Structure formats: structure tokens, C-alpha cells
Amino acid sequence: MSEGLYAEAKELLVGGVNSPVRAAVRPYPFFVKEAKGPYVFTEDGERLVDYVLGYGPLILGHAHERVLKAIVEQAERGWLYGAPTRVEVELARKVISHVMPGGKVRFVNSGTEATMTAVRLARGFTGRNRIIKFDGCYHGAHDYVLVQAGSAASEYGVPNSLGVPREAALLTLVARYNDLDSAERAAKAAQDDLAAIIVEPVIGNMGVIPPERGFLRGLREIADRYGALLIFDEVITGFRISMGGAQEYYGVRADIVTLGKIIGGGLPVGAIVSRKDIMDSLTPIGQVFNAGTFNGNPLTMAAGLATIEILDTTDALSRASKAAEEVSEELERAGEGLVTVNRVESMLQAFFTQRPVKDADGARSSNRELYVRFHEALRRLGVFIPPSQFESLFTSLAHDDEAINLTLDAIRKAMRGLR
Ligand SMILES: Cc1ncc(COP(=O)(O)O)c(C=O)c1O
User: Which residues are catalytic?
Assistant: First the structure.
């Protein structure tokens, strides 16, 4: 049972978990026994409709047959060679064709590694040091981006983690999302030392916060005016809001795109995609260092390739979006007067506030205690949404009518209980 496992885990793992948001489920995290399609099955015998989906990667739902087959077939041929493989070339071709035709990619093992490498690459390419990020955007757990970050960093109130040297944080200027004036002020403050502007084109780590009209284009212009590179962190949005990600969806080109989550089909992954001249600054051609024992590992590459092939040849993205639309509409109906719902395609979040949520301050000022009670009520009714307001709900191809109807009913009951 989860309670006993958690007691054991707490003796052995910090907080009983390996990533902090997992400890936010009260009174203790449920332990998962298995998962299939839109459902997770807990050690306590519950079946829950899953809107967490591993925090984003599982766009096809759990244990999709074709992805499973690709992983097993690869595993039978061995799973780590320390030498190149055909499958990484095939996945590279797919990713580049959607994200940056004519460009190149480097596969790494997490979104954190992707943004860490992207920032180093931007610095190496421009010969400059400073970067701008936005309050509430989360780009992973490395020093230069752990400044006013979203996700768990926000939930736990550690905008600047202990252990991040002040000197490192000083190189990161923070601007307000959806506020071009504040981005311009930060760019001015960086003078001629601005290497990059990094942004989640849709914030997915403060709940969901979409860009207002003109915001991303404005960032493109500021980056150009100051000779800096624009980095879109599409670890969440890549292959979710459209096959070409936010660049395609909003019609704004970035210089560097970071990817993760979906492109590994649910196995650990990250990637940096950019123009050839920028990418060739990386080792072994250039002098910006990146390496990794597990970079481009065959199991991940096989799972990622199978996933993208399915996205390419089916209406999976639009079906996931449709499921999210139904959930959003019910949240709005049942939560009228209580919540504001933000959604972009298959990512969404309900904020317990009546004001529009356009930036991190808006998200922070919503009623988080009510959100947690809502999460707990849904859990009792068989639906798992993130335990923190500062995360997104995700839908997948696997969210069929049965799962959605169960969810809509649970939303109605849970909202009634909160009034
Ligand atoms: C936008 C964004 N960037 C980077 C990361 C870090 O990715 P990872 O957890 O794989 O290190 C995340 C993780 O949620 C993310 O949402």
C-alpha cells in the first residue's frame, strides 16, 4: 500500500521522492503500480484518469502499443552502444523537418540538459554572458535559470535555490512575461553583453499562461535589436501545440529551440535544435562543450521515433486538443464565478481567481488552497490532476469518451463541493 511504501521511501529518498512536486500529493503520494491508456493504477487499487501524464511526455497515453513494441524490439538488440545508430539519424531527420528545416539537433537526456546546453551555446556563439528569462518560466534545474522559476521552484518558494552562486544569478536578468517594456528594460540593462532571451513560448510551469498577441514577435525584435539569440524552450510545447511547436503555432522563429518530453516517447530526453552555423559551435566541431554517456540512447530514440511517426500519420494532436477543450469547458461551466481557465490546445489549467491570469503574479495571486482541495476532491472521484497550481493538465490521444465523461462528472461534483 502507498502509505507503507511512503514510510519506507522517506527513510531512503529525500522527502520520499526523486522530484519535489511528487511529494505535494496529500496526505502522502500514491504509488503507481501500472498505467495503461488514460489511466494510472495505484498500489491501493485505485484507477485514476491521468491528466499529469508524466508531466507532459505521454501525448499518446500510457504504454501505447506501437511505442512499447519499438522499445522492446530495440531492447532485444541491446540498449547502449556508445556509438552512433540508424535510429538517432531517423529521429533527427524527423525532429529537424518539423522544427527547423536545414538545421541540426543534439540529443541529450533531459530538458534541464537541453536548456543548460542552449544557454552555453548562445554564450559561446555570441561571446556574451548575460541572459534574460521571465518570471514564472521554468527551464529546468541548473544554476542560470533557477531564478524566479516556476514549477516546483515556485511551489516551494525557493526562487533562488540555495547553492546557486550570486555571481551566476547576476548574469540572469528577469523580466515579466507578457510585458515587452520589462523585456526591453532588461535588454538595456544587459547592454552589449546580452547573449540570449530564453522563454517558454506558452508558460506551462505556472499553470498555463499563453502569450498575448505580439509578445513573442516583440521578443524576436528585441533579440534582433540587441544582437542576442532568441531561445524558445519548447520542452512542453514541442510536438504538443502543433508539430512545429510554438514557432509554427504563433508564426515566430527562434534561433535555438529546446525540446524534451514528447520527443522521447516517455523515456528520458532533451534536445537542442538550431541553425547549422550555431549548432556547429558544439563539440566535436566547435568549442562549446557538450557530451553524454546516454545522449541519443537507442531506447529513447526508438520510443521517440515511434511517437512522432504516430503523430505524423494520425489526428492524435487534434484529438488530444478536443479532449482538453471538453475538460476546459466543463471547468468553466461548473466553476463559473470560481475559476479562470487557460488552455492552449492540449495543455490547460484552472486558476481559482476571477481575474485573467497573464503572468506569474496573476498565477501566484490565485487561491492555491482551493486548488489543492479541488485536486483532492477529483482524486477521490477517480481523476488525477497535478497537485500544484503551478503545473499544467495534459490530455492525450488515449483520453477517450469514457475517460472524459468520468472526468466531466467528477469536475461537476468536485466544484459543487467547493462552493
Ligand atoms: C519548459 C521546460 N523546460 C525545461 C524543463 C526541464 O526538463 P526536465 O525535467 O526533463 O529536466 C521542463 C520540465 O518540466 C519544462 O517544462
Answer: 138, 233, 261
